Amino acid sequence: MxxxxxxLRTRLLEEQQQLQQHIAHVxxxxxxxxxxxxxxxxxxxxxxRWPELLLxxxxxxxxxxxxxLEAVQAALSQMEIGLYGICCDCENRIEAKRLxxxxxxxxCAQCRFSx
Length: 115
Ligand SMILES: [Zn+2]
Hints:
Blueprint: H1 3-28, H2 33-44, H3 50-54, H4 60-80, H5 96-101, H6 109-114
The protein binds zinc ion (ZN).
């Protein structure tokens, strides 16, 4: 694995951890029983399965971080299978500059701005 890829991977792992903490914090601060149950459920689930559960909850506080967690995890699994940095629309390489700015970027500049 190249140094650059390694750095991006470290950034993604750090962000994943921050998002996990943020989501747990939001849930812990909710008085409703539903949220408390969701919080308990999440603690029993492995992190890669959080987004599928969280995205059923259409609450604004959770929606953003859950979507982001999903994107971060997608990028990490692409790294594992050697498909990181490939545009999900046109399958060209995503520009290095875009990946530096957002390591979870899924589209090349052309597809991002034309779509
Ligand atoms: Zn593209």
